[in-house]
Amino acid sequence: MHTVVVGTSGTTAEDVIAVARGNARIELSGEAVSALAAARAIVDALAAKPEPVYGVSTGFGALASRHIGHDLRTQLQRNIVRSHAAGMGPRVEREVVRALMFLRLKTVASGHTGVRPEVAQTMADVLNAGITPVVHEYGSLGCSGDLAPLSHCALTLMGEGDAEGPDGTLRPAGELLAAHGIKPVELHEKEGLALLNGTDGMLGMLIMALDDLRRLYTSADITAALTLEGLLGTDTVLAPDLHAIRPHPGQAASAANMRAVLHGSELTGHYQEEEAPRVQDAYSVRCAPQVAGAGRDTLAHAALVAERELAAAIDNPVVLPGGTSEAAGSEGGRVESNGNFHGAPVAYVLDFLAIAAADLGSIAERRTDRLLDKNRSHGLPPFLADDAGVDSGLMIAQYTQAALVSEMKRLAVPASADSIPSSAMQEDHVSMGWSAARKLRTAVDNLARIIGVELYAATRAIGLRRGLTPAPASRAAIAALRAAGADGPGPDRFLAPELAAAEAFVRDGRLIEAVQPVTGPLA
């Protein structure tokens, strides 16, 4: 099994995916253990001083003005976890919780939080044991971090609340820890706060969305090319020099993908041989690289933000070396309050991606509808039906696709444009990044379904163009799709299982895998 080593300098998107989706094991590096111990020494020195230090010897948020004595500090840290574990609604997905916990461990291991090495090791042990805390849909405003979701994870470290075992069974967390030989932690000064105060949930969901969307954008280039073939369109609009004069890298990549798929097709270039010759194809076909390319460039920007966040250590307060502030300790370091927990950078790009995904879904649906309309499909039967009138063909498949697109448009409304005050107006501006991430996950799921419907329709349309041979890459895609359980033209039949097969074929990357032996690597 793959092992991810957590050091002091952040982590990579690949490591997040490996832990969240691949159950990779986690180890703390020697460097991280040393940094944890050094930062803890700073916190312990500050805790021994009579002056109050936020997060070490005070209350939290709007209650930060109260100085907490030594005898109540363990209770203070335990209480912040219990009181903040106030989420409601359905459970979030296992992969989200694993990403959330791993990314919090990444920040803890940086040596900027003051958490003891044994607490960090317990976090790694829980992940390695396959124990997943119960985290709920609602409870984060995306500022002061993903407080409620992270609190539910911290509650498990304390042996409280419920969690899911590696067998998928829900049990009391204390029982699960005992079954795996893990001792519950007793939190010391600052540790409760340090486990809660990060943007780890929204960042984890951003990284997984990027992983999925890269696959879906390449898949959409393939289905756009297949639709172009099905409509007997022209591939001249994909010429490299046309895209070079508008030098957006995503646009060039999408056009190159479509050219590679269409290479060797006998179905392109017939648009002027019809009774009513076309001068040019409709926008949904002709502008496919421009729309998908803009989305690709949005992905690139979002990936840059994610890369920066992965290198960050987000906590409040943070432990820093040196300095002469009032919160300076005797160990050559200090503890400082800051605003790095605000989720705006992540929230914005989550919303950008939802907008781009909605537009990609919209243009794919317009191409599908064109394939089904006998007045615009250039010789194809109505709804690609076998015996139109007796058969309805793919009429309702497009209804389903249209319903998905409509929801995508609603999901594209930015969450980050909203803010609602909390904590007695101390936290008076928040990012809503968790909400942006949750709706993006739904949008990504819908996009896979929308592209799956276009794939199903386009391959059926190509199958109805008898006498002309599709491109070798198209033939490879069609053969693999048929083997996956989505059949070709014919009389009406139960469509839902075949549409589900097409969706899965797109979602898990098999469409890309089917064509790349012919096209070579696609962007």
TrEMBL record:
The record's Pfam families line, in alphabetical order, gives: Lyase_aromatic (PF00221)
Q: Which SUPFAM superfamilies match?
A: L-aspartase-like (SSF48557)
What is the top-level taxon of the source organism? Bacteria
The broad enzyme category this protein falls into is lyase
Which pathway is recorded for this entry? Amino-acid degradation; L-histidine degradation into L-glutamate; N-formimidoyl-L-glutamate from L-histidine: step 1/3
Keyword line: Cytoplasm, Histidine metabolism, Lyase
Q: Which HAMAP family match?
A: His_ammonia_lyase
Protein name from the UniProt record: Histidine ammonia-lyase
Q: Source species, please? A: Streptomyces pacificus
